[in-house]
Amino acid sequence: MVVYVFCTNIIYYDYYYLKIMDELEEIKKRKLEQLKKQYMNGGKNMEGNLPNTPLEITDADVEDNIKKYETIVIDCWAPWCGPCRMVHPIIEELAKEMQGKIVFGKLNVDENPMTSAKHQIMSIPTLLIFKNGTLVDRLVGAMPKEMLKQQLEKY
Asked: Mean pLDDT throughout 119-143?
């Protein structure tokens, strides 16, 4: 009789042990997904809260930003460039108007030569348009706000 109770207790213990291990595995998977989302958002909970001002982008963080945002437009500019200064307020306005759809960034080509060389920036201003981490388009030269907005709305 004692053997029977002992065996029943072992089976009972094994059943609950396996059930608890399955629950722990499920919790672990959920937590890893949560951490992955948090990491991809730069450590912030930004679901639906994309920036409404252009990000300052450098050689060091350009790849992270390209991967982080579904659609990002990087304005390659220089402080001495007249057309770049004309485009600057347009980019500021579009960042506010298109918040939630497109993230805008500004890359100073004088201070970030590696990215400029990698993407073969020969004229400025140049807007590099990335979708899901891939360069999908490039717009060269200054253009009016409405024309630029029309070009970007397809992304």
From this structure: 95
